[in-house]
Amino acid sequence: MPIFQRALLALFAFLCPFGVMADSFPTRPIRIIVPFAAGGSGDIVARILGQRMTELLRQNVIVENRVGAGGVTGTDGVAKAAPDGYTIGLSTTGPLAINVSLMERMPYDPAADFAPVMLLARVPELLVAGPKAKVTTLAELITVARQRPGQISFGSSGAGSLPHLAGELLKRAAGIDLVHVPYRGVGPAANDVVAGQIELMFADLPVLLPQVQGGSIRALALASNVRSPTLPDVPTMAELGFPGVEADNWYAIIAPRGTPPDIVSKLYSVLLEAVQEPAIASKLDELGLRIVGGPPEDLAALIRADIPRWAEIVRASGASPGR
């Protein structure tokens, strides 16, 4: 190619690189990294969105589960990917806000190493009681817990997890002494609540919904200030006098730092179109998610605000991995 043609092409790329890239993007499949196991709520959400994105973008959108370290492994995979829009991730409160205070070393900076794309949805932590608890309301639980300090146990998906910290918030707000029992995942904890091995647990609403609807456990309260249409009769902690017990898990779509703004904008637009479609919105509602669809700046602000908030709760709880 003659020198002057190469020069013209270089000048063209310099003057309008992002707009041209966004207009042609994508030209090959996009990968969504989910840092949690297949079949979980995060995985289900990613696959619902991925299918619709495939249709809207006319390119395959592939979900890849990359599990480990409480979501850190997969989220780090997003941070280390090429910033070209072809690798994005679905992550949550733990990997993006809590684990930075829980872990001695983080492989990424949640506030600096990502290009936020969308604050997708929020889902509240749900407090449930099993048959061993013999309580039907939060007020009854608090009364019994004050009569039996240190004798009532609550399970979680692990030390420092959002369900654990939700329990710590309740302990502090209600002035009660509950014993934390960490499990390797929410499934074993839920099984033990149903079996009567432990009395209580917090978890994302969608995780516990089948047992609540089946009657094997009782929903006491949502750690939120807004009721869920999925369980409209379950009161919030705020309604019951504990507005500080607020533990919403949020779902975020992120890209590597340095992803061109026009590509981020295109991804956001496509995602927003998807979550606003009635069929998609209905599926997410059934999972107990409250769709937000917040723009990149809202997600960036939330990450910056939640890191110090959860850091204080982690310190107060004494949480560390394996404890």
Topology record:
Blueprint lengths: L2 H13 L1 H8 L5 E5 L6 H17 L3 E5 L6 H8 L7 E6 H10 L11 E16 L8 H10 L4 E5 L5 H13 L3 E5 L3 H10 L4 E5 H10 L3 E5 L25 E9 L4 H16 L1 H9 L3 E5 L1 H22 L6
Verbal overview:
This protein has 323 residues and is of the alpha/beta class. It has two domains: 28-123 and 249-317, 3-Layer(aba) Sandwich (D-Maltodextrin-Binding Protein, domain 2); 124-222, D-Maltodextrin-Binding Protein, domain 2 (3-Layer(aba) Sandwich). It is 45% helix and 20% strand. It contains twelve helices and ten strands. The protein has helices at 3-15, 17-24, 41-57, 72-79, 93-102, 138-147, 162-174, 186-195, 205-214, 261-276, 278-286, 296-317, and strands at residues 30-34, 61-65, 87-92, 114-129, 152-156, 178-182, 200-204, 218-222, 248-256, 290-294. Strands 1, 2, 3, 4, 5, 6, 7, 8, 9 and 10 form a ten-stranded mixed sheet that branches. Strand 1, helix 3 (41-57) and strand 2 (61-65) form a beta-alpha-beta unit. Helix 3 crosses helix 10. It is globular. It starts with a helix and ends in a 6-residue tail after the last helix.
